[in-house]
Amino acid sequence: MALDAETFAQLIETVRRFVAERLRPLEGQVEADDAIPDGIVAEMRAMGLFGLSIAEEFGGLGLTMAEECRVAIELGRTTPAFRSTFGTNVGIGSQGLVMAGTPEQKAQWLPRIASGEVVTSFALTEPDVGSDSGAVKTRAVRDGNVYRLSGTKRYITNADKADLFTVMARTSDAPGARGVSAFLVPRDLPGVSIGEPEKKMGQKGAKVADVNFDAVPVPAENRLGAEGEGFKIAMRVLDRGRLHISAVCVGVAERLIADCVAYAAERQQFGKPIAEHQLIQAMIADSKTEALAARALVLETAAAKDEGRDVVLESSAAKLFASEMVGRVADRAVQIYGGAGYIADYGIERLYRDVRLFRIYEGTSQIQQLIVARETMKRGG
Q1: Taking residues 180-185, what's their average pLDDT?
Q2: Residue 307: is it exposed, middle or buried by C-beta count within 10 angstroms (0-12/13-18/19+)?
Q3: How many whole angstroms separate alpha carbon 239 and alpha carbon 15?
Q4: Of 104, 117, 362, 375, which residue is the catalytic one?
Q5: Strand (E) positions, the chain?
Q6: Second label for 213, Cα 20 to 30 Å away, from 15, 63, 269, 362?
C-alpha cells in the first residue's frame, strides 16, 4: 500500500538531505578506503532504508514500486556504493523471500532484513554461468530432511557481509531451467565459505566475492517454492531489480548533468563560460533529453507493475535504455570537464567508472535486447 502523499514527500526530502549532506562529502573517502563508514550504515538502518520494499507488517516501509524508484533516483545522486550497502536487502536479496516465502520463512527473516540486522545476498551467477541462468551447475541433493548443497557462486554482491543467501541450485536432471530450485542459505551453516573480495574497476566500497558451498546441509524447509520453481522465482526477482537499477541510473545521470551545468557556467574559454559554446550546449541538451526519457520510462513501468500488469518487456527496456543512457551521459561529462574530468579531484572520472557496471549486472544490455525482442514478438509488436 502506498504511503500518503505527505509522508512520502517527507521521506523523499529526508533522503535528499541525507545524500547531499552526509553521503556526497564522503565519496572520496569511500573510494580511498574501499569501505562504507560504519556510522553511515547505522544511519541507513535508522532511516529504514534496508526495508524500503518490505511490508510494514514485517517492519519495513512497504513502498510501492513507483515509490521505491523515486527513492532510488534520489540515492543515485551519489556514489552507487552507498545504495549497494542496503540494495540487496531491498531488491534481489530479499524479494525471492517476499514473493515465494512461506509465512514461517517470512516471519523468521523479514523483520531482521528490514531492520538491517540481517544482510542478504542473491547467489545465481557461477564461474561458467552468467546470463545463462538456467544452466546453473551448483547442486542440491535431497538427503532426508536436508539438501546437500555443493558448488561455487561468483561475483556475488555483498557476499562479504551477507548473513543470508538466496541460492539457485539444480535439484534434478531436468534440462535447463526446469531443474533449478531456490533456497534460503544462512551464512553460518557448515560448509559455507566466502572468497576474498574482487578488485574492481569502480563502485569501491561495494564488495563482490565468490561464495563456496561444500555439501552444506540446507534444511528442506528453507526451500523457496516447490522444486523446479527456482528459475521462475529468479526471473521475477530480476524483473523488479532491473527497475530499481534503472532508477538509480536516472539519478546518477541527473547528478552528472547538474555538475556539468555548474562547471560549464564557471569554466572560461575564449573569453566566456564554456556553457555559452554551442557544442557544450549540445552535449548538455542530449544528456538532459535522454535522462528525461529514461525517467519517464522507469516511472511509467513502475506504475504499471504496481497495477499488476506484466512488465517483463518494459522493465528490460528500462534497464537497457537507462544503463546505456547513463554511460553516454558520463562520457559527455568527462568531455565537458576536459582534463579536469580525467583526474580524480572532481569525482567525474569516478562516476564514469562506477556507471559502467550498470550495463552488466542484473542482466547485460545484450540480454535485455534479447528479452525485449522476444517479448515484442510474443505480443505481436
Answers
A1: 97
A2: exposed
A3: 25
A4: 362
A5: 120-123, 139-143, 146-157, 164-170, 180-186, 192-194, 208-219, 223-224, 268-269, 272-273
A6: 362
